[in-house]
């Protein structure tokens, strides 16, 4: 859709007489695919580079192409601290996601379904962590942990990530709750459901797409967060922090391996979800037919 | 709780009794000390414009709202402080509120499963057969048409055999033809299952077609309650006279009265109303007559005992609607009258601008209980336009709160 904008501007900008209109049409016909291809290339080059260079038979420095090898994929954990940092990132991501999703979902339901004092101010305050620069958040948290005398480590990273993820969860789930007809829950109560039955059998399954989206978002945010983590991690390394430190003396190809693996996993998940959704839609259509 | 639940698997309907029910929302009183008794097994309609408190009444009975004051009794048992799932009541929601993530069968079986009633699947199939949708049991709600969803919502409620079934404008979203068909079906099902139905609607025709008893609600109070014919033929207030069908209303002082009739001076013309059909018999009173009871005459009629005549007046509007034609007649000094005439010949009998007299049998008039001074505020409150405006106002309020 964005690509249509310049094409249109181009059309309006040229005041050529009608005999040349055909050529103008042809120009647009070539221009749009070229523009689209360039835009996609621009987006995909870093990813392609990362993937290709995970097979580079390099030494310490992974900058120039030295030849093809599978070695880096097989010896990924041989690099000092890499797998440990990756494991930390996964651990932090999972725990922070679970905490933020659970808390954020409850907050979202409360904000949409109930009327209470300071409701709109709370909504506003929940936006703040999203709007505040990460450097400010990270530095502020670090100062607080210092004042409290908390030793920096996995715990402080998890707390920091949970904190900024909650905002994103609330915003995502809130939209879903707002689109849910309150009569559905009332119907559940009416049909002899106790409050917990109504929540688990009606509210939760209906909110699940929103909750799942929020959880994925949280994990993604937590997994690649560097700034806040760097302020609050002490000596513990996470995957982004490892890359940052490694970058100073040359990133080993094993980092490309992990990055590529994560990327491939994400692609597989998306493809599987898409295929199963199409299959389900087809099945439903068959039922209808 | 378990015994209460099991006991609520009712074999027949139960009485509903509301005693002094008041409901206040911040800033508004929705219902003002309402007393209402609905006998077991009846089809009862609460009729009124949007915002009159009828839906709030329904939600109070369902247990979805808490009453500010008063008591609710179902089958003689006080349920005022119980939770919705502890009441022998089920609701058919206006939006149907079918669970989109369950099949039709699971939707219908939901209540049975929650209460651990034996053989929920067979009972759900039975309820679906009652609404003739058993062949769609494995579909999802989104795959059904509006009318089908409506019937599933009904099946999902009656499968629990509630002593009292609440219907919240259940036909509002259907088109006219389907609505007519569903009205008849609902009535048949009610007779078949013998439960008490409490139906809330703003559609006067729907209320009159379906219900044994209609209560007309306005501003949190019941204006009048009775059989549909009774309400239509003898409205007690101007609101009822105008909300339930149309009426020609006049005001004037009572000039003479006999044992059977009173005479009211309407703009200098004596109008006779039977004493038994008038609520007030002295002073300034409001009287009326239904438009279809009025005859249109093209020449001045000879004075005749037992007939009221107004005129001459001018026809200001003629609208043809197939079965009948509606005429608006402006009578100087009295106002505009509505006349419905059956189309016995082809097309309208008179045209705009014609000089006419209107006449009706004195036995067909009625006298209202209202203070005549209050009349203007009751003016046309029932048109679809005013309902649409009320809807919009309600929606705006809701948006403001959100």
TrEMBL record, chain B:
<feature type="domain" description="ABC transporter">
    <location>
        <begin position="16"/>
        <end position="244"/>
    </location>
</feature>
<dbReference type="GO" id="GO:0005524">
    <property type="term" value="F:ATP binding"/>
</dbReference>
<dbReference type="InterPro" id="IPR008995">
    <property type="entry name" value="Mo/tungstate-bd_C_term_dom"/>
</dbReference>
<dbReference type="Pfam" id="PF08402">
    <property type="entry name" value="TOBE_2"/>
</dbReference>
<keyword id="KW-0067">ATP-binding</keyword>
<protein>
    <submittedName>
        <fullName>ABC transporter ATP-binding protein</fullName>
    </submittedName>
</protein>
<dbReference type="InterPro" id="IPR027417">
    <property type="entry name" value="P-loop_NTPase"/>
</dbReference>
<keyword id="KW-0547">Nucleotide-binding</keyword>
<keyword id="KW-0813">Transport</keyword>
<dbReference type="InterPro" id="IPR003439">
    <property type="entry name" value="ABC_transporter-like_ATP-bd"/>
</dbReference>
<dbReference type="InterPro" id="IPR017871">
    <property type="entry name" value="ABC_transporter-like_CS"/>
</dbReference>
<dbReference type="InterPro" id="IPR050093">
    <property type="entry name" value="ABC_SmlMolc_Importer"/>
</dbReference>
<dbReference type="InterPro" id="IPR013611">
    <property type="entry name" value="Transp-assoc_OB_typ2"/>
</dbReference>
<dbReference type="Pfam" id="PF00005">
    <property type="entry name" value="ABC_tran"/>
</dbReference>
<dbReference type="InterPro" id="IPR003593">
    <property type="entry name" value="AAA+_ATPase"/>
</dbReference>
């Amino acid at each position: 859709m964005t690509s249509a904008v310049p094409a249109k501007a181009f059309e309006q900008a040229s005041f050529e007489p009608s005999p040349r209109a055909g050529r103008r049409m042809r120009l647009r016909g070539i221009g749009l695919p070229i523009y689209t291809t360039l835009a996609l290339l621009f987006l995909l080059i870093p990813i392609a580079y990362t993937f290709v260079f995970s097979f580079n038979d390099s030494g310490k420095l992974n900058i120039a192409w030295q030849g093809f090898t599978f070695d880096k994929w097989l010896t990924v954990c041989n690099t000092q601290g890499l797998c440990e940092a990756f494991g930390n990132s996964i651990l932090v991501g999972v725990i922070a996601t679970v905490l933020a999703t659970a808390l954020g979902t409850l907050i979202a339901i409360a904000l949409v379904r109930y009327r209470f004092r300071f409701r709109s101010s709370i909504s506003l305050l929940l936006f703040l962590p999203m709007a505040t620069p990460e450097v400010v958040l990270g530095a502020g948290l670090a100062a607080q942990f210092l004042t409290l005398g908390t030793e920096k480590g996995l715990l402080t990273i998890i707390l920091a990530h949970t904190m900024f993820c909650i905002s994103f969860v609330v915003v995502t789930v809130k939209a879903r709750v707002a689109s849910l007809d309150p009569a559905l829950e009332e119907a559940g109560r009416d049909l002899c459901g106790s409050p917990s039955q109504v929540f688990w059998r009606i509210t939760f399954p209906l909110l699940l797409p929103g909750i799942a989206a929020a959880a994925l978002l949280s994990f993604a945010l937590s997994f690649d967060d560097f700034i806040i983590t760097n302020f609050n991690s002490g000596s513990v390394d996470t995957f982004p922090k490892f890359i940052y430190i490694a970058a100073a003396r040359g990133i080993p190809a094993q980092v490309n391996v992990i990055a590529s693996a994560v990327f491939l996993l994400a692609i597989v998940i998306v493809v599987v979800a898409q295929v199963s959704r199409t299959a389900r839609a087809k099945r439903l259509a068959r039922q209808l037919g | 709780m378990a015994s209460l639940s099991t006991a609520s698997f009712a074999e027949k309907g139960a009485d509903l009794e509301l005693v002094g029910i008041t409901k206040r929302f911040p800033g508004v009183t929705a219902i003002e000390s309402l007393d209402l008794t609905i006998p077991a097994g009846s089809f009862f309609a609460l009729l009124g414009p949007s915002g009159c408190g009828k839906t709030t009444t329904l939600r109070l009975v369902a247990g979805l709202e808490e009453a500010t004051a008063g008591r609710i009794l179902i089958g003689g048992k006080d349920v005022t402080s119980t939770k919705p799932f502890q009441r022998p009541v089920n609701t058919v929601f206006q939006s149907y509120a079918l669970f989109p993530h369950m099949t039709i069968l699971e939707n219908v079986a939901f209540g049975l499963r929650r209460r651990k009633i034996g053989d929920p699947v067979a009972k759900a199939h039975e309820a679906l057969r009652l609404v003739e949708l058993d062949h769609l049991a494995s579909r999802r709600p989104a795959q059904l048409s509006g009318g089908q969803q409506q019937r599933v919502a009904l099946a999902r409620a009656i499968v629990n055999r509630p002593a009292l079934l609440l219907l919240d404008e259940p036909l509002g979203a259907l088109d006219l033809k389907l609505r007519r068909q569903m009205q008849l079906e609902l009535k048949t099902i009610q007779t078949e299952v013998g439960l008490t139905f409490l139906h809330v609607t703003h559609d006067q025709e729907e209320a009159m077609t379906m219900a044994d008893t209609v209560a007309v609600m306005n501003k949190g109070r019941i204006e009048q309650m009775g059989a549909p014919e009774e309400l239509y033929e003898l409205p007690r207030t101007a609101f009822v006279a105008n909300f339930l069908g149309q009426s020609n209303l006049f005001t004037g002082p009572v000039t003479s009265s006999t044992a059977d009739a009173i005479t009211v001076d309407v703009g200098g013309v004596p109008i006779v109303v039977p004493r038994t059909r008038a609520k007030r018999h002295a002073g300034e009173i409001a009287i009326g007559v239904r438009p279809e009871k009025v005859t249109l005459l093209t020449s001045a009629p000879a004075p005749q005992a037992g007939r009221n005549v107004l005129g001459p007046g001018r026809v200001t509007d003629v609208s043809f609607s197939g079965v009948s034609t509606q005429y608006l007649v402006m009578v100087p000094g009295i106002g505009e009258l509505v006349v419905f005439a059956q189309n016995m010949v082809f097309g309208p009998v008179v045209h705009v601008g014609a000089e006419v007299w209107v006449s009706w049998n004195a036995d067909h008039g009625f006298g209202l209980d209202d203070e005549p001074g209050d009349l203007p505020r009751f003016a046309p409150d029932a048109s679809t336009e005013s309902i649409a405006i009320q809807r919009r106002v309600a929606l705006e309020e809701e948006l403001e709160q959100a």
